[in-house]
């Protein structure tokens, strides 16, 4: 598992190195702001890819005495750093594009290499994003998913730059700067999605989709009279689930244990890399505890 994640992350690093260098050289030679903005975008993708590579190496280390819940959140932290880098990209692109449009200095040189670098970028980005998404989904890796999102955003931004180059080829040079602004908007959208997900996980926001899955499993067991205090948190690829269930008071310890094992097995089957903590209590004291227990309206069972 770790080897496959490391391999796909390392290939992405080399792909980002190639794209950054290629775009930078052609951007400088042609003076195209669209290509230069793409070079900067790819440059930050390179930094993000390096961060991802090291984060997937660390995140799968087992829990220890200092990190009782493992090292998974390093993936979420790396995604937050990638968001900040993307925002820096947007600031530079918008500033440079507006300056060119206001000053009227939009003249660029369009040649065959301009098209080669952009089309090559689209092909490579498509290949890398698909490979990253595949492995990210397989291992529930948010760091690889964030890296895939970087490469997929490059596909759209490169397509916009390609359109700007075509317009510039017909004398509409301002289209290059406009294309750069559109790239910035795309990057801002990607940054928002990445940043929100990273912050939600770092602040232990309960994932609603996972919450609904847990509720659906618990409602299939007739032995469970009630459940409450459902708490879910994620850390990288790992999910930690905790809840209380109410059972018949005359249930034997063996039966309670076997039931909890079944529930745990069902949850692990639909929620990969999850750890489940179940507290069982007799149903006949539930009406007493209901007066004092802390409730979570969005997570409480009926």
Give the N-terminus to C-terminus distance in angstroms.
39 Å
| CATH topology name of the largest domain | Alpha-lytic protease prodomain-like
Number of helices: 9
Query: What is the beta-strand fraction?
Result: 5-15%
Shape: elongated
Integer tally of domains = 2
Mean pLDDT: 81
CATH hierarchy class name of the largest domain: Mainly Alpha
Low-confidence stretches: 290-302
CATH superfamily of the largest domain: Cation efflux protein transmembrane domain
In the CATH classification, which architecture of the largest domain applies?
A: Up-down Bundle
What topology, given as strand order, has the largest sheet?
A: 1-2-3
SSE order in H/E notation? HHHHHHHEEHEH
Total strand count, please?
Answer: 3
* Helical content (DSSP H or I, runs of 4+): 55-70%
Largest sheet: number of strands, sense, barrel closure: 3 strands, mixed
User: Structural class per helix/strand content?
Assistant: mainly alpha
Provide a quick synopsis of the model:
About 70% of the residues lie in helices and about 10% in strands.
Commentary on this structure:
It is elongated and about 85 Å long. The protein has helices spanning about 1-30, 35-60, 75-105, 110-140, 140-170, 175-200, 210-220, 255-270, 285-290; strands at about 225-235, 240-245, 275-280. Strands 1-2-3 form a three-stranded mixed beta sheet. It has nine helices and three strands; from the N terminus they run αααααααββαβα. The protein has two domains: about 1-200, Up-down Bundle (Alpha-lytic protease prodomain-like), CATH 1.20.1510.10; about 210-290, Cation efflux protein, cytoplasmic domain (Alpha-Beta Plaits, 2-Layer Sandwich). The chain has about 300 residues and is mainly alpha-helical. Mean pLDDT is about 80; it is low at about 290-300. Strand 1 and strand 2 form a beta hairpin. It starts with a helix and ends in a 13-residue tail after the last helix.
